[in-house]
Structure formats: C-alpha cells, structure tokens
Specification:
mainly alpha; Serine Threonine Protein Phosphatase 5, Tetratricopeptide repeat; 3% strand
Length: 121
C-alpha cells in the first residue's frame, strides 16, 4: 500500500490513478493539452472511482477542441455529489472553480463561457 499526501492508504491502481490525474492537471497548466487527455484517460482506466479524474476529463477534452465530448462529461457529472473532500458539494462547483483557476493563469478557451452557461442549467 502507498500513502497519498493526506495519508490515505491506497492500492497501486489507485495510486497510479491519482498520479496520472495529477499529471493531467499539471499538463493543462503547462499547456500540454494532448498529454493531459492521455494522462486522464490512463488515470480513469487505472481506477474508475477516482473522482478527481472526472474533473480533468472534460477540461482536457475542451482544451483539445473536443467540445461535444466535454459537454457529455459536464452533463453527466455536474449534478453528482462530490465526496472526495468536504470543500465542494457537487461536481458543478468544482468544474466552475477549475475554469476560474485556469482563467486566472491566462489559460482560456472560446468554449469556457459556453460551458459556464451549460453548468448553470
């Protein structure tokens, strides 16, 4: 068993998933969008219960100009409860926070406004 930063004991597949999910987000911040999408898909394959991966997946699709795929993921997850920590009540809140965080570091996409409208519904 491995430990994460918050000392949860994880199996190897879960640890791989968290590492690849983190790589996905880091790749977004480094503007390596194709790498981000690949990493998040590996994260999901390693452990499909890792909620963090499902926050990265639609953003990775969006930044790879795959709006239709992103939209499907946003719709699928936006109203589901977020249980990975107590900071957010549902995925919608985390999605909006992530978009704001990206805009704050000058990562933009013409579809960000479209996604924000979708998340309001």
């Amino acid at each position: 068993m491995c430990s994460t930063r918050n000392n949860k004991k994880l199996g190897i597949r879960s640890q791989l998933s968290y590492n690849y999910s983190n790589l996905s987000w880091s790749s977004i911040l480094c503007r390596q969008y194709k790498k981000s999408l690949l990493a998040v898909k590996i994260a999901i394959k390693a452990d499909s219960t890792n909620q963090y991966s499902y926050t990265n997946l639609p953003i990775a699709y969006l930044l790879n100009n795959m709006y239709n795929e992103a939209e499907k993921e946003y719709i699928k997850w936006k109203d589901k409860p977020w249980t990975a920590d107590s900071q957010n009540k549902n995925f919608r809140e985390l999605f909006l926070t992530d978009l704001a965080d990206l805009e704050n570091v000058s990562i933009n996409n013409p579809d960000f406004e479209r996604v924000k409208e979708l998340l309001k519904k």
